[in-house]
Amino acid sequence: MSQIAEKQTPDAPGSAKDPAARVILAGLSQSRKTLPCFLFYDVHGSELFEEITRLPEYYPTRTEAAIIEAAAKDIALHTPPGSVLVEFGSGSSRKTEILLSALPSLSAYVPIDVSRSALDEASARLAVRFPSLRVFPTLGDFAEHLSLPQALSKRPRLGFFPGSTIGNFAPADACDLLSHMAENLGPSGRLVIGVDLRKDLSILLPAYNDADGVTADFNLNILVRLNREMGADFNVDDFAHRAVFNREESRIEMHLVSLKAQSVELLGHSFAFAEGESIHTENSYKYSIPQFKELARRAGWFPREVWTDPKSLFSLHELTIAH
Ligand code: TRP
Description:
By secondary structure, the protein is α/β, with parallel strands linked by helices. It has nine helices and twelve strands.
């Protein structure tokens, strides 16, 4: 997905009809402006996100990796031989390697991601480290219907959804997504899912606003991308990254704040910004362990295990359908 909308140039008259363009225009037309989070992950955005995962302030990735490491044996004990591992939003598949080493009897690994480059790189790396593993890279949105290769359709499925990506959905949508995954994983399905926990703001805020400004670049890259791919004229220096914790909603909110009164042209539309007005680009909901279990139950799952780190920063849940 290197182009948001293939045939578009700034002066192509039909371009505003493209589905992605329509979502973008609708978001910017609201009284509280928003942009869709699918804009984050172009090639550069995916690289910046990889860099975020290595930042000292961004505790989720390394904390979750350590939890998976410690839980892998237990997960393997619950996994029947010949199972298929399906990963939703696989990205670089780094954390998956920990599971794959603990699960030698898998019949296949199905990584699903919207980034072709991330899928290609991960598959090439896994082919070297796990030469006998069958990998079926699947380009697409993990929230859509999953069709597994015919040969695998009867195998038990283990879903893997790390990174607290579930936290990027509002609770009602998260619930829909979890029930959708339950359907896709079938009656003997299980899901191992990473969920970031509520915590002190002194730890939480820097994770979304690091000292080197990588997260700021990641957020601002959306505007760079709209300029390049849709002919917008955002002056990127006139916007700043801001991350705030919304206590009532229990979520980190990511915004791009307009540093002055200005207007921006996009696909023949003009959008006015007041000084200090923001575009809301992403949410990252934080749960307590009981809150997340409750959400999973509402979606038709049965919480079977939960693992956490010594500081209770992050949680890894194993959910089952049959029990
Ligand atoms: N799933 C990640 C999270 O919520 C995504 C993320 C991390 C992110 N840092 C970000 C999204 C900065 C937007 C901006 O932690």
